[in-house]
Amino acid sequence: MNISxxxxxxxxxxxxxxxxxxxxxxxxxAQISSMLQPALGFNLAEKVGVxxxxxxxxxxxxxxxxxxxxxxxxxxxxxxAPKLA
Length: 85
What we know:
One of its GO terms (molecular function) is symporter activity. This is Na(+)/serine-threonine symporter. With 85 residues, the protein is mainly α. Helix content is 86%, strand content 0%. The protein folds into two domains: 1-42; 43-78. The chain is built from three helices and no strands. The model has no long low-confidence stretch (mean pLDDT 83).
């Protein structure tokens, strides 16, 4: 099984399974990072941690826009709903 097949299987899978695999991979990298530091010459956890920082920053950038859209949709639905009483 080649690497492209593994990647395609990963992205076709369930979101919950992908999150669990990512968490497991992160825990494994954190555990073996200190052992690999002398061989690699750098801390692997710090290098991979940059991906987490990018993810959190992108969530912070998108969150206000998402909240704005949700509030506008709620206001639009409130105005267009027929009155029952």
